[in-house]
Specification:
elongated; 144 residues; Integrase-like_cat_sf; mainly alpha
């Protein structure tokens, strides 16, 4: 388990689909030896940022996918937005993203479109008795 850029180590549950794609990549492109790089450079060493677009044909690939302007880091942002949309709490998102401060993790909270509707629907279900919590339906009005 490696330390993240924010000095905390993390091990996350596997996303089945992503693992399948990575296994295929490993079997096809990665040498079968300890310490082999997932995405090696042209000479077998580490893939440098300066050579990333050329080596991966990134610009051509995103153009073919009709996603011009997509950057590699946008994939991290997309994954973090999907995690935020799952309804996970801020602390869980921070852990998953490897962030050790709220400010960094809050960037992804803007992505939770429809959260207000989901919250209102959950409140409606409880008030109407349609939820499965077993609580008595209705509102509790506190006085004082």
């Amino acid at each position: 388990m490696a330390a993240t850029r924010y000095r905390c180590s993390q091990k996350q549950p596997d996303c089945t689909t992503a693992v399948a794609v990575l296994r295929e990549h490993l079997n096809t492109y990665v040498q079968d030896e300890p310490g082999a790089l997932l995405f090696p450079g042209a000479k077998g060493g580490a893939l440098r940022r300066s050579g990333f677009n050329t080596r991966t044909r990134w610009v051509d690939v995103v153009k073919d996918m009709d996603l011009p302007g997509l950057h590699f880091h946008d994939l991290r942002h997309t994954g973090n937005m999907l995690a935020a949309e799952s309804g996970a709490g801020l602390k869980d998102l921070m852990t998953r993203m490897g962030h050790d401060n709220v400010r960094a993790a809050m960037i992804y909270q803007h992505a939770v479109r429809g959260a207000d509707r989901a919250i209102a629907d959950a409140i409606d279900k409880h008030i109407s008795g349609a939820d499965e919590e077993g609580d008595a339906p209705g509102l509790v009005v506190l006085e004082g």
